[in-house]
Amino acid sequence: MLGHGGMVAFDDQTDMSHMARFAMEFCAEESCGKCTPCRVGAVRGVEVIDKLMASESSQKAHAETLLTDLCETMELGSLCAMGGMTPYPVKSALKYFPEDFGLSRQVSDDV
To answer: From the record, what ranges are coiled-coil (predicted)?
Structure first.
């Protein structure tokens, strides 16, 4: 999935955790408010990404699990494409750029 309906290109210096946060923040600001997964989920997504970035390594796994679960809820429960597709760039950033979130693991198909 390519972001919010378009292709976005970054150089190799871009922090993908910030781009993931921006995707959630954009959704939080643009949400029409009709469905809870989008209206509340995007706001909580920003908070969880901030928590993930600020947490100690021992707490990162919990924040990552929470973010993954939140993304799944948004994907499956949102009424519109914006809320349902916002998690795609977030999940992609977690999968392919875990080091930008302070996570140390190999790329896997689990995310």
So the answer is: none
Question: 23-27, 43-47, 72-76, 80-84 — which is least confidently predicted?
Answer: 80-84
CA distance 12 to 28: 27
Alpha-carbon span 93 to 67, nearest angstrom: 12
Residues in contact with 79: Cβ distance below 8 Å, sequence separation at least 6, in sequence order: 34, 35, 38
Q: What is the pLDDT of residues 36-76, one digit of tens each?
A: 999 999 999 999 999 999 988 888 989 999 999 999 999 99
Contact 107, 95 (CB under 8 A): yes
SS3 108: coil
Range 16-97: architecture per CATH: Up-down Bundle (1.20)
Are 8 and 2 a contacting pair, CB within 8 Å?
A: yes
> Cα separation of 94 and 74, whole Å?
16
Average per-residue pLDDT in the chain?
Answer: 88
Q: Tell how far CA 49 is from the center of its chain.
A: 7
